[in-house]
Amino acid sequence: MDHCDDNPTAADALDAYCLEMELWVEAVKGGKSVENLIPVNVAPTLENAEQLGGRLVFLRSEILPRAERKTAARSGELDSWIA
Q: Which sequence spans correspond to the domains of the chain?
């Protein structure tokens, strides 16, 4: 898979990254294998899954919306959202 083609903007790439990491978090919390998921450089423990999950919530609530607004502003879409 060519991740650049699938995620043409920074917001798209961050969203895809969060999704892949959320799959890892859910697998760990569910006691499932993470072997075929995105590599994460920590042991697949509940503590690590909880910490990563909290970071992903922050990324999705604070960073991703800003990246989406910046992308929209660059493409001229923000003007139509405000009107």
A: 44-83
